[in-house]
Design brief:
By secondary structure, the protein is an alpha/beta fold. It is 27% helix and 30% strand. The chain is globular.
């Protein structure tokens, strides 16, 4: 397990780079953490690494945002906070995303734990008083 500490959004960008360097061939990331822990901030940090030009926002209401990266292709940002059950995730096509070659970042993966392939890199963000502890496990 890898662990990092971030005290700011700028340091989250450093953490994103370290994750990318440590898992250069991985494209699927499950982001665990309480509301406000920094999951979307981490996805925004990946934005620069993946050369995404569009602004990255939380897909809380749309559930899935799709972005395009010139060098990497499709990038999907999912927020499953509002899902009532795993069936809703299946109905909106998450299994196709998981099987795609695109990058996939999933916020609130615990809502669909039984659907997540074991290939996902698990990123847990723990909000503390003055910083965030980020734990990465494969």
């Amino acid at each position: 397990m890898q662990e990092y500490i971030a005290q700011s959004a700028g340091e989250m960008a450093d953490v994103a780079k370290k994750i990318r360097d440590h898992f250069p061939d991985e494209r699927k990331f499950a982001l665990y953490g309480e509301m406000g822990a920094g999951k979307t901030t981490l996805v925004r940090a990946f934005k620069a690494l993946l050369d995404i030009e569009d602004p990255v926002s939380s897909p809380t209401f749309s559930l899935i945002n799709e972005y395009f990266s010139q060098p990497f292709g499709a990038v999907f940002h999912c927020d499953f906070y509002r899902l009532k059950n795993e069936r809703e995730a299946v109905d909106i096509g998450v299994m196709d995303l998981f099987e795609s070659n695109g990058f996939v970042f999933v916020e609130w993966p615990e809502k669909i734990e039984n659907l997540l392939p074991t290939t996902f890199v698990k990123v847990k963000i723990i909000q503390r008083e003055n910083d965030r502890l980020i734990q990465i496990d494969k």
